[in-house]
């Protein structure tokens, strides 16, 4: 496949040259030493099963044995306020509140204000209703992340809404931007929408959207019910990257188009990955390794059950429970997914004999590899190799 991917190759040369150019460090040894010297930062999310007015086919907010949704009574909101105060105590490195959908959870806004939360996620469906945008702004919200999964047909497939509601979504985004809010978008990537990238980018650019974050749909949460041909593989990922490459060129410097969450693997032909590993970037959550599941540097607490998970996409996998919040106390399970265990236990293209980047990468996003390996019925899926890796694709498609 002949694909233009030059915007993904902003940092070329030998590995040592790329590290030095991005960080000023003298190669792999210095970067690893820098990584290991950094403080073991931890991030905590409080995942709130608020009601949602959509039924997205890839919703990750599907906790096994969870309540589905919670009623936001005064008592429940006060309990959330107390829990947030404990989990978000000053000694925590990073704490975030994540409702499933903020516009159907307006009683939570006073808690957001108290904790100075200025950014939240929404599907955008209710933003056009009278008073919704102003209520969000009055609570201190300044930035919205809205999910826009491609064009009208892909939107309908992903959200199970009617295609006719797509234009209303775009109008709502435009209204939010004109009101003074900053809007970025999430673009869940699955095979049916990989060729919507350019069209969607240009439409969002016209509205004033500043950033699109592309996140790969993986078989976690509701997406476990999707057929295999929905998920991207190497060939479709290559086509998707080519489409992003073209969209970046046409959008110019007015928009930032990024791959989010490591679900396509790390790009070791960019500068940002090395800067992050060296501690020179404040990208979430500041963990030592590329994936904060490694060494237990993240925990997401599902409010309805109090169970803790090592990734926000792990809620449907009870075997991954990594802790529990109960009676005002957070307890953590012993961490087994350590850098030492991964070094020798990773399989496939992530095994140390198969990847020169393994000491830096440690197998990339572990929940992505886990979800696909579990779907394939592999034993010990936490140590599975990635099925797709952007660095490998860039190496193979010079």
Automatic annotation (TrEMBL):
Gene3D superfamilies: Aldolase class I. SUPFAM superfamilies: Radical SAM enzymes. InterPro entries: Aldolase_TIM, Radical_SAM_PqqE_MftC-like, rSAM_sf. It comes from the Bacteria. PANTHER family: PQQA PEPTIDE CYCLASE, RADICAL SAM DOMAIN PROTEIN. This is Radical SAM core domain-containing protein. The lineage of its organism: Bacteria, Candidatus Gottesmaniibacteriota.
């Amino acid at each position: 496949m002949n694909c233009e991917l030059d915007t993904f190759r902003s940092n070329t040369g030998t590995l040592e040259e790329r590290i030095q150019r991005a960080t000023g460090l003298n190669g792999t040894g210095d970067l690893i030493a820098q990584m290991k010297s950094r403080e073991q930062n931890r991030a905590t999310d409080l995942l709130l099963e608020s009601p949602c007015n959509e039924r997205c086919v890839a919703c990750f907010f599907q906790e096994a044995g969870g309540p589905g949704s919670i009623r936001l009574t005064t008592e429940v909101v006060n309990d959330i306020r107390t829990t947030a105060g404990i989990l978000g105590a000053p000694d925590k490195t990073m704490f975030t509140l994540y409702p499933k959908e903020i516009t159907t959870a307006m009683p939570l806004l006073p808690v957001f204000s108290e904790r100075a939360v200025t950014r939240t996620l929404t599907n955008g469906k209710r933003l056009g209703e009278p008073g919704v945008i102003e209520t969000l702004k009055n609570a201190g919200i300044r930035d919205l992340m809205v999910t826009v999964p491609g064009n009208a047909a892909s939107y309908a497939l992903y959200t199970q809404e009617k295609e006719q509601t797509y234009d209303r979504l775009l109008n709502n985004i435009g209204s939010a931007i004109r009101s003074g809010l900053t809007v970025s978008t999430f673009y869940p990537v699955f095979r049916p929408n990989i060729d919507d990238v350019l069209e969607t980018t240009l439409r969002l650019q016209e509205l004033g959207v500043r950033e699109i974050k592309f996140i790969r749909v993986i078989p976690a949460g509701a997406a476990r019910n999707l057929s295999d041909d929905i998920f991207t593989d190497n060939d479709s990922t290559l086509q998707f990257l080519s489409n992003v490459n073209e969209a970046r060129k046409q959008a110019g410097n007015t928009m930032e188009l990024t791959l989010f969450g490591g679900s396509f693997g790390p790009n070791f032909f960019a500068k940002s990955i090395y800067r992050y590993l060296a501690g020179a970037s404040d990208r979430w959550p500041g963990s030592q390794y590329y994936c904060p599941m490694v060494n237990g540097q993240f925990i997401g607490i599902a409010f309805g059950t109090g169970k803790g998970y090592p990734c926000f996409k792990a809620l449907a996998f009870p075997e991954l429970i990594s802790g529990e919040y109960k009676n005002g106390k957070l307890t953590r399970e012993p961490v087994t997914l350590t850098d030492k265990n991964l070094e020798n236990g990773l399989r496939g293209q992530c095994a140390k004999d198969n990847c020169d980047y393994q000491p830096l990468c440690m197998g990339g996003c572990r929940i992505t590899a886990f979800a696909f390996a579990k779907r394939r019925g592999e034993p010990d899926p936490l140590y599975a190799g990635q099925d797709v890796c952007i660095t490998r694709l860039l190496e193979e498609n010079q």
